[in-house]
Amino acid sequence: MNSKILIIEDVPEMAELASMYLTKSGMQVDAVGSAEDALIYLDKQMPDLIILDLNLPGMSGFDFLTKFRKEYNASLPIIVVSARD
After folding, report:
1. Which of 2, 32, 60, 81 could serve as a FRET partner for 9 with CA atoms 20 to 30 Å apart?
2. Which residue has the higher pLDDT, 50 or 83?
3. Which of 12, 66, 4, 75 has the alpha carbon at shortest distance from 39?
C-alpha cells in the first residue's frame, strides 16, 4: 500500500516538483493551494503525511496547523516548509 501525502503549497511549480519526486518514489500525492482547500480535503480523506507551506494566502500555515491539531488527528506527522525571497 502506497503512503498518501497531502501537499499544501500555493506555488503550483513547487507543489508539482515535490509531487513529481514523491510519486517517483512510490507515494500517492495530492496537492492543494490553500489551507482552506486542505480543510475541505481532510473532511473527505486523511493522508499519512502532510507537507505544509507556512506562507499561504488567506489562512496561514500556522493557523492551519492550530486548527488541524484541534479538530483532526493530532498524531498525523506534518513537515513544515517555508522560504522567503
Report:
1. 2
2. 50
3. 66
CB within 8 Å of 42: residues ≥ 6 apart: 6, 68, 72
| Nearest partner of 56 among 6, 3, 8, 4, judged by Cα | 8
Which residues, including other chains, have CB under 8 Å from residue 79's CB and lie 6 or more apart? Answer: 49, 50, 51, 52
Helix (H, G, I), strand (E, B) or coil at 1: coil
The yes-or-no verdict on residue 67 having pLDDT over 70 is yes
Q: 14 — phi, psi (to 5°)?
A: -70, -45
Please say whether the dihedral angle defined by the alpha carbons of residues 34, 66, 23 and 17, taken in this order, is positive or negative: positive
pTM exceeding 0.85: yes
What confidence tens digit (pLDDT) does each residue in 21-36 have?
999 999 999 999 999 9
